[in-house]
Queue: 2 jobs
Job 1
Amino acid sequence: MDEKDKALLNEIQSNFPVTSRPYQSLGDRLEIDEDEVLKRIARLREKGIIRRIGASINSRRIGFVSTLLAAKAPENKFDDFVRLVNQCEGVTHNYLRKHEYNVWFTLIAPSEEDKKRVIRDLVEKTGIEIIELPAKKIFKIRVDFKF
Amino acid sequence: MSNYEPDSIDKSILLILQGDLDDSRQPYLKIAMNLGITEDEVFKRVKNMIDEGIIRRLGAMIRHIEAGIGFNGMVVWVTPPDDVDTVGRLFASFPEVTHCYERPPFGKKGANLFTMVHADSEDACMEIIKKMSQACGVKDYEILFSERELKKVSMTYFDDSE
């Protein structure tokens, strides 16, 4: 990644232009032409750095509920547990962490009932207890990274 | 925030935008043609949904591990209830802190503030966390480093059947 790539990434993460030719608008801001913007984006996609270009939707704002869940999955049940958790459509992030509670995942569901059902199903299928830690107050969600 | 509810056209736009825009030079025109509306209408609706907070962010989603900032530590802080607001806002001001939430008490000590700290190494993460602790005076915290990313996807909110 060179300086132009970094500048492009900083710009494109949160200020994707809402204009007829967004890649040209980006190019104008960075003083490169539209073709070069597209070429650099293609390369950053190939490297796996750009996952997608699109919208991040505020789930709460459209009536969905989201929560953070944690579980203590023992080694002999770990793979099965993770497979079942990851199969859930609304599970968007899942991390193995160095802690007694080793599996931490986020769940987004269309309603409170759906959320409860997904958690209940997981507990029933796996026999592993799951604790729920929904946000009481949000101080910051910043999903763009500075390069 | 207002109570603006996305209508069916908004939802059709969100359905496209929650996926991946291809590298078409005129992606909004493409959406407009798909939905049988004008490009100006697409601009208007997208801008409105950004203003309304329905679209939190429009742009590139990054795989931070590939981008070299793959280290993330979740830090849980045991904060006196009266200080949660002050400390939460202070943590939020750190650029390396990407997420900061108050959550129900966790663990034996009842940690109630959760922050996600991103950096390029475990050491760098530790440095930032030390600074955060010094800045707010909360000494009782626990770090849960990520060992492995088990899943990371974007949510699908509206499917074609809706």
Job 2
Amino acid sequence: MSMMSYLEAGKLALAQEMRRDPLVWTLGEDLGRGGVFGQYKGLVEEFGPERVLDTPISEAAIVGTAVGAALVGTRPVVEMRFADFALCAIDELVNQAAKARYMFGGQARVPLVVRQPSGMWRSSAAQHSQSLEAWYAHIPGLVVVAPATPVDNFGLLKAAIRCGDPVIYMEHKDLWGLTGEVDERAEPLPLGVARRVREGGDVTIVTWSGMLRQVEAAVELLAGAPSVEVIDLRTLYPWDRDGVFASVRRTRRLLVVHEAVQTGGFGAEIAASVAEELFEVLRAPVRRLGAPRIPVPYAPPLEEVCKIGAAAIAEAVRAIVG
Amino acid sequence: MAEAPRANLDAERLLAHYRMMHRIRAFEEAAEAAQKAGEVRGAIHLSIGQEAIAAGVCANLRRSDLIASNHRGHGHTLAKGASPSAMMAELFGRATGTCHGKGGSMHIADFDIGMLGANGVVGAGILIAVGAAQGIKLRREDRIVACFFGDGAINRGPFLEGLNWAKIYELPVLFVCEDNGFAAMTRTAALSAGGGPDARAESLGIPATLVDGNDVAAVDEAARELVERVRRGGGPQFLLARTYRLKGHTATDAAGYRSAEEVAAKQRDEPIGRCGEALLVAGRSEAELAAAAAAARREIADAVVAARAAPWPDRAVAWTDVQDVGSPQEARR
């Protein structure tokens, strides 16, 4: 076990998988310089410039060529620099990567990981702050992962690299420096299995990615009354329906908290599924907390309008429990 | 830009091209008829008039080489070696099709013969071809990729991004631009600034060769030279093959945006007739040519009969090959 940051945990996972499998390689802008956040630092020295490929600023080509390279049996790990820039490669992600296996009748697979640094971080404004996980969860063929802790970034990135499907891998930029204990010899974590962060009896909060820290702060504020169960979803597609349903059967109340815009956010899918399956056990209407439907503004007091804080979460919990 | 050298093929090789072009022509005419009869659904894009490019280029590829194609891909796929009956079954949406009925005309793929897929999105195959070449290079494999696209694709971003990428990493790709003069239903020249596809390739340092795309011998010879260069590690090469699309954009497009006189004039220049004339000059008999054409038509007629008789895919197949992780059946409950 070692203490390491979320960023270092991701880097270690990639390095281990590149040592394990010579067909794993990584490509993106400025990777030879360590990547824009330093999450690739030292990799080119170990693996060489062919397996840690510095690419032009050509997002469509970064993803499109990775699809072609995956179709011939390599396992590319793509860096998008910012999740927002992946929008330049939507055809390659949605029409090509997600569909090749299916429309070719299973003749080929696209084992591809697309790392998309997401979320609000250091006043990055409207084009460098988005959380677009719900878009990808909507697309058949894609797996969507959003780790919230160093240990999960280690175990889930390893799992994503070994996965035979194209995986959208969303690391939250505000978590890069978050530290925690990581077992460097741990096996990959299963995709599609949520983590129960804490047990509680009165209400279930389902969250993921950067919002987990705010939820944990809200639980501190509540100091045990009411008693909150916290579930970190970790994988958005497939999402852990069984885990969430089991928790809601016990607590009989649900709050979903995410950083993304609430309208059409993934919280809507969870809320609707719980309403469809567990309506009779619910003691209160399901609630969602997400961002207002405005672009993320620059100035800190404006950006605050988009953020869900611990106080708002605590208030929502009290309102649900009544 | 270099002009392709004058072709001087032996008659046997030319006859093989003649057979392949007839096979492609017969396949597409049968597909068109089957669509009119309601047996082939969706959009099909015919390459009638453009067969010489597929035949001439693919004749220089090995089975282990790869191709990526576009929406007008029947000819490329047949010329690379796919089974016409599996392809026809795919157009009919049957279980015996290349993609078990999940793809149709625009998504025909046959990985066993190195065909990485047609594509429903103009220009998208360029990046897949370039990426496959990068994968080949990483794996130190001795094979190359040929990438077919039309002149309409040169205005899409992946054309610039893919050509630049192939050149900076010196990847083993032969780009084949089939310039049929039309971007869907509009003349490409009216929509494209600058000196054309070859000028754009050369601006990125990729040598371009211009060839008469309706002269199968010329395409064959030009492709042989370029394939050799790519295979020797000479980096990406670009073949611009001028041709003419005798049918509309899709099989149901009457192409009213051009005159009957224009099409009639181009009909006299179509590649199968020209190849036949060259074969007669080379001493082959009319009877031999007629027999080749009849054999192709028979083979395709058999493929149609087999496709019509083949079973539909089982409904359960709709749920397979979506992804490994996660059940696709959630919304079904």
